[in-house]
Amino acid sequence: MTNTSTTTTKATRGARGEYAKTRKRREAILDAALEVFAEGGYRAGSLREVAQRVGISEAGLLHHFPNKVALLEAVLSRRDDRSREMVPLDSDDPHAALRGVVALAAYNATVPGVVELYCTLSAEATAPDHPAHAYFTRRYETTRAAFLKSFGTLGRQGRLRPGVSPERAAIVLIALWDGLQVQWLLDREVVDIADALHECIDALADVEWDETDATPAADETEDAE
């Protein structure tokens, strides 16, 4: 007599193991693709080169991503996931979000190829028929909304500089960040992106740059109680 419960359990474990294996392989492909696209650009980077770095065939790669456009979209989304780990854009704490912006800019300086890929693609993607057009349209909308939330909260706290609106601050910060990256790629001795963003944000709002500033002292906490 067959033990149905045991068979089902083994099948479930097998399915989970296969899922984990597939997810790990997809992540390896995305990491390799990011490297390839960052080194030579999206148009020059080939699926064959990505597959070789992972140690699989091109057909094996296409099993996970049906075409180069799908791979590009997944690579960009993975980059954003990593960025969000450093920049808590959805945080209710605007100080943490804006500190994260500067931290991410400092990190990006260590991966110039990724910055170059972003700048090149964002310019090319202004064409409606570009494969990354929809992605960048959504990305700018999402980023503007996140910065608007942060600066809006700072405004309600009375921390925006005179004459600065949350809407203007959000647009200015994004525009400056993009422009600084282009200048940095052309001559990395000209500007420090993280420092420049720090100064820009300071000009827009009164931000608590030291995390400990936002934490009440022990005696203050006791008094409040």
What does this structure look like?
The protein is mainly alpha-helical and 225 residues long. It folds into two domains: 1-75, Homeodomain-like (Arc Repressor Mutant, subunit A); 87-211, Tetracycline Repressor, domain 2. The protein has ten helices and no strands. The chain has helices at residues 4-40, 47-54, 58-64, 68-86, 94-108, 112-124, 133-156, 166-186, 193-204, 218-224.
Following the backbone from N to C, one meets helices and strands in this order, namely HHHHHHHHHH
- The top-level CATH class of the largest domain is Mainly Alpha
- Mean pLDDT reading: 85
Can you give the helix content as a percent range?
over 70%
Largest sheet: none
Task: Pick out the low-confidence regions.
Answer: 213-225
Instruction: Give the class from helix and strand content and strand pairing.
Output: mainly alpha
Contiguous helical run count: 10
- Gross geometry: globular
State the oligomer.
single chain
Number of domains: 2
Please tell me how large the radius of gyration is. 22 Å
CATH topology of the largest domain: Tetracycline Repressor, domain 2
From the 3D coordinates, which CATH architecture of the largest domain would you assign?
Answer: Orthogonal Bundle
Number of strands: 0
